Acetyltransferase (GNAT) family protein (Halpernia frigidisoli), 169 residues
Amino acid sequence: MILRKANSEEIPFIWEILQHGIQQRKKDGSDQWQNGYPNEKTIQEDVANNSAYVFTDKNKIIAYSAIIKGIETAYNIIEGKWLNDNKYITIHRVAASDSVKGKGIGSALFAKIEDICLRENIYNIRVDTSFDNLPMIKILDKLNYSYCGEVIMGGSPRRAYHKELPKNI
C-alpha cells in the first residue's frame, strides 16, 4: 500500500470515498460532516494546496486524508494543553472506501502518515475528531495519540489529539 499526493484527476474518486464517510457518520447518528463540509471544493483546495493524499492498494484508491503542514489556526486555542509547541502536521478529512471497512486501513494510513513526518523531520502530529466518532477515537487510542482537550472546528467542539514521534527511527 502506498500513500501519495493526490492529483486533480482523482477528485471524483476521492469525493466518492468522502461521500461514503459522510453517509456513515449520518448512519451513526453523528452531526459530523452533515452540514455540506467536506465537499468537492474542499478536495480541490486540498489538491491545490498540496495537502491531498490518497492511500492506494494495487493502484486503487482506498482512503483519503488531508495532511497539512504548518499552523492549524483553529488549534491555537485549546481547552486543555498540547503536548508541546513544536512543529507539527495536521490530519483532516480521513475517510476510507466502504470496500475496506474493518480491515485496519485507518491504522495503516496513520502509520504511513507518520512515515512521511519522520522523512520530513516533523515529529508531531495533531488531529481532531467529533466526540461521537468512535471509530476514529478507537484508531487514535490504539496508535497512542494523546487526548489533549477540546478545540473548535467549524463552530463545533472537537476532541483534540497529539502524538510525538520518536526522533531515533
User: Anything to note?
Assistant: The chain is about 30% helix and 30% strand. The first strand starts at residue 2 and ends at 5. The chain has one domain: 2-164. The first helix runs from residue 11 to 27.
